[in-house]
UniProtKB/TrEMBL annotation:
The lineage of its organism: Bacteria, Bacillati, Bacillota, Bacilli, Lactobacillales. Residues 419-487 form the DUF3502 domain. InterPro entries: Bact_solute-bd_prot1, DUF3502, SBP. The keyword Signal applies. Keywords: Signal. Gene3D superfamilies: Periplasmic binding protein-like II (3.40.190.10). It comes from Enterococcus faecium (Streptococcus faecium). Residues 1-31 form the signal peptide. This is ABC transporter substrate-binding protein. Pfam families: DUF3502, SBP_bac_8.
């Protein structure tokens, strides 16, 4: 059913791309000064660190020397980014590269805001594209066209029930057979019987999302999805599924027994940090279990036990969580493509962009890892910026860690693809209905997922309101579009 990566690598050149590259001519024609260096403007989400200009000077020294490009990176805070990106695109502002993700990527890609990368994945972008999991290419395509270059990271993740190991050992609890939410009851009951510390909450979760084996089609609170396994051809309202009711009823029972905070649905600040010891059970999303456990334990500062709550799948959501697109308004698309390929394959530059200057913001250790020494003055999250597998490790590199990294890559490569990987729902005819559905779901979602209210009373009420808001119309269109997409992707 799935297209293979090769199909995207050898796709035809779009008219838009040909027009842009033809208009720009040679790289000399793109030059901004007598040296032939091309300045590329890159809009990126994030706060500007104190030493940003100093670090960018170092970055540009390397870029000018190696690829004859000068980077003009402009950071926009997360809270303002989406709105400002929309203004830039809708006004036709000239720029070269932007960070984009999720529904914005789909909406702007469909509008022609970005050039297609299909014909460049085996040319200007070939070095970086060769490192990407195939799921990124399939998941990032919109009707066969790839408009964004994903930040290389885990694409296959699952939810993990996370236990405080000290408490498991102290009370000699058996968590070996924990998987679905219904398997938690015996463990929680025994913990509640034995625990005498009132400062410890059995379930350290507040506004946590529901964990059921479905892949959402739209996201943003619209409860339409397709099952990962079983009937993978039908778009369902997840609030009508037995898995949803099982989860919500279990959480409500836990709430009634006092395992969950009474104000879990209304707290605005999560009181259960992973490095605190005021919780027995939590939940985290991550990739390969042994590696995830080591990373989480490093953050927690104490032992953890992770038990998968389900299977890991490559999903469209994770394929599009962080991407970089080349603008259709760019006067320098060739230089922009060259820059994206270079920063994602050159560790020295990637480390500069993420960690800053060696000797000032971090120190290099003998094993090749680094120790951050001044991240207050400079640090940018790799997850949204460059190849996360390329940047230097911040934990010691040992034979065990190397083995775990290799096993993790194998886990990512071998994870099955979601049946809707790469499917994009065209919501343009349902803006009003979607906004109404999102508003209604926001009134019920946290109350239900936190166990605060009885799902047998509140879910029917929610379903009635969703029907009046037009969810059935959205669902019918989603099913029709999904059927057509499946036919073209066999």
């Amino acid at each position: 059913m799935k297209k293979n990566m090769q199909k995207y690598l050898i796709g035809g050149v779009s008219v838009l791309t040909l027009g842009l590259l033809g208009a720009c001519g040679s790289s000399n024609g793109e030059a901004n000064n007598e040296t032939g260096t091309t300045k590329v403007t890159w809009y990126q989400v994030g706060e500007e660190p104190k030493d940003f200009d100093e670090v960018m000077t170092k970055v540009n020294e390397k870029l000018k020397e190696e690829i004859n490009v000068e980077l003009d990176m402009r950071l926009i805070p997360d809270g303002d980014y989406q709105q400002k990106l929309g203004v830039m695109i809708n006004s036709g502002e000239e720029y070269d590269i932007c960070f984009v993700n999720g529904t914005d990527y789909v909406n702007y890609g469909n509008k022609g805001a970005f050039i297609s990368l299909n014909d460049h994945l085996d040319k200007e972008l070939k070095d970086y594209a060769a490192e990407l999991n195939e799921g990124f290419i399939e998941g990032g395509a919109i009707n066969g066209e790839t408009y964004g270059l994903p930040v290389n990271n885990d694409i296959a993740t699952t939810e993990y029930w996370t236990f405080n190991k000290d408490l498991v050992d102290q009370y000699q609890l058996d968590v070996e057979n924990v998987e679905g939410v219904e398997t938690l009851a015996p463990v929680l009951e025994k913990f509640a019987e034995k625990n005498t510390d009132t400062n410890i909450t059995p379930i350290g979760m507040t506004r946590t999302s529901v964990c059921i084996p479905y892949d959402n089609i739209i996201g943003g609170g619209v409860p339409l999805a397709v099952a990962f396994e079983g009937d993978t051809q039908t778009v369902v309202n997840t609030y009508e599924t037995p898995e949803m009711m099982t989860y919500l009823k279990a959480m409500h029972e836990f709430y009634k027994k006092g395992y969950i905070l009474k104000d879990a649905a209304t707290v605005t600040t999560d009181p259960f940090r992973i490095d605190s010891k005021n919780w027995f059970l939590g939940r985290n999303s991550s990739g390969y279990q042994p590696l995830a456990q080591k990373k989480l334990e490093a953050l927690a500062g104490h032992g953890l036990i992770l038990k998968p709550a389900g299977k890991a799948f490559k999903t469209t959501g994770f394929a599009r969580v962080a991407m970089h697109a080349v603008s259709a308004s760019s006067k320098h698309p060739e230089a922009a493509l060259k820059l994206l390929n270079y920063v994602n394959t050159n560790q020295e530059v990637a480390d500069l962009m993420v960690y800053g200057i060696e000797g000032k913001h971090y120190d290099r250790n003998e094993d090749g890892s680094i120790t951050l020494t001044n991240s207050d003055d400079y640090y940018q999250g790799a997850w949204a910026l460059v190849n996360t597998y390329l940047v230097s490790k911040t934990s010691p590199i040992t034979e065990e860690s190397k083995k775990l990294e290799e096993e993790s890559k194998k886990f990512q490569n071998e994870a099955p693809m979601s049946p809707i990987l790469g499917f994009s729902f065209d919501a343009s005819d349902f803006r009003t209905e979607i906004a109404s559905v999102q508003n209604i779901v926001s009134q019920y979602e946290v109350l239900l997922s936190s166990g605060t209210v009885d799902p047998e009373q509140y879910v029917p009420e929610l379903l009635e309101k969703l029907e009046k808001a037009g969810l059935d119309k959205i669902q019918a269109s989603a099913q029709e579009q999904y059927d057509e997409w499946r036919k073209s992707n066999k």
